[in-house]
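Per reviewer request, we include the raw input and output of the structure prediction for the construct analysed in the revised manuscript.
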Amino acid sequence: MKRLGLGGLFFVWLYGVPFLLLVGLIRRTAKPYAPTREAAEAFGATTDALLIVGLLLNALPLIGLLFAGLAEDEGWHRHFRWAIGGMVLLYLLVVLVSRMATGVLIGHTPADDGPAPAITQCIPRSGGHGCPGG
């Protein structure tokens, strides 16, 4: 059972973390169709969640190294020692991408595609000027 748990932890890190980070980065560079401000905020929040979860799960090799040491499994201990190098590499790649980006990587809300709101009423300004357009 311990080998299955350590293997699952390793392969979640190996395949799941790059997938989440890649999908999050693709979504960040995409121009979504967001007809309303709420839809744009939801798109941005989902993208932020993918990137944050990917960055947090990137620490799984440290947890795996701890569990492999507790289980005294030298094979998985060796795998997780090597995975720490991959973990650092993934963090450095995300930092590199964020430095190359023109905006923030996490916390960005795309623009909505909705039309500008129509002016339905006019309040005259003081000084005798009327409403624009008549």
